[in-house]
Here is the input.
Amino acid sequence: MIEELRGQRNKVQAVLDSIAEGVFTVDRDGRITSVNRTAERILGYPAGEVLGRPCQDVYPPEICGPGSSLHETLQGGRQVRNREVTVADRHGTAVPLSLSTGPFRDEAGTTLGAVCTIRDLREIERIAEERRSRTPFVGIVGKHPRIREVFDLVEMIKDSDSTVLLQGESGTGKGLFAQALHSLSPRRRHPFVKVSCAALPETLLESELFGHEKGAFTGAIKDRKGRFELADKGTIFLDEIGDLSPNVQVKLLRVLQEQEFERLGGTQTIKVDVRVIAATHRDLRQWMREGKFREDLFYRLNVIPVHLPPLRERKADIPLLVEFLLDRFAAKGKGKATSVSPRTMAILMDHQWPGNVRELENVLEHAMVCSRGSVIEPESLPRSLLTGPAVPTPHAATSERPPGRSSAGPASEKERILRALESSHWNRGLAAAHLGMDRTTLWRKMQRLGIAPPDK
Here is the structure.
């Protein structure tokens, strides 16, 4: 009987070892019961060192600690699919992983343990990095002079190690530009580590940035490297830097000045070589005046300021963005629509886009899912977009009419067309979209009303 069980176990282990993904299992108490060779290689721990030990005593907390997908599976019995994390292996190397977990149950439905499947994303990220190096501005679309100025500035500063402060409203693409700066820089073969300064409370953020020593606080059961250590030789992107607490601001100032720090609860000084890119949607100068942001930290961060324009200040890029986003959604199988109607484009051009490109992306995804044909009509747009100004039609003006002027008169029609052409710098495609008509109709009206570009 024992030999039969041993034979079955060996067969199961052989199957696990043949899988390209890392796999390990734990019992209901979180003790490791099996590990395949791929998991040994990815995490750096031989099976002989970990079998029978509590998972959280061996593997990083992102895999086994509180809040991890494995913890959720053991506590609630639910499956977790493709949760991406970045962990440090036993040698301190940053490893990007995709984790999936699921429970083992008996016939009564009681959870007996769990299985964790690990995908090593380093090869995928390597391929993505090669693509980014060929086209570093992936996902950033625009021909407006304001955005082209930003492209030119990024090209100028790409080889510098100076700190960059990206400033712009939410949804303007600060994260994409940070990634582009890293992909263009000499550090592109080293880690690009992102930290959202607004997502964590002060105590957790300090540990996240600088790491902690075993016993530094309740739950710190082992040493852990912080994001600055994981980003060594590479780039760290500090998003929403304006939300840092005063205590963390002081520690960050020291890192920027001296490139050194101590882990939480530690005494050893750690030196790093990191380029810092920070981003904020806040007015940091106003926050300085209010005493919420340190002046010395601001000037350390503001070495190279980059201002990203809101979408409402580069509306000429909306047709390009619409085409780009619809192509991307189609590639992901989110719908069949390939274009928008002139009426829909007019609505998009009139909207002020407080959420910027991110809002446009969400609006188009909603419209694509709700659209029944290949052309998106206004009825497929979110209702919030249609409850503002009146929806323009091919027979209605999109601009306000001069008081006392009949909307049916040719003079008012000519004035509307002239205003649309002038606001779009005489780009007939943009003017037609703004007026809610196609280019051919606009051209015929221009001929009939005697409208010609200024240079004619």
In short: The longest strand covers residues 94-105. Residues 311-391 form a domain with the Helicase, Ruva Protein; domain 3 fold (CATH 1.10.8.60).
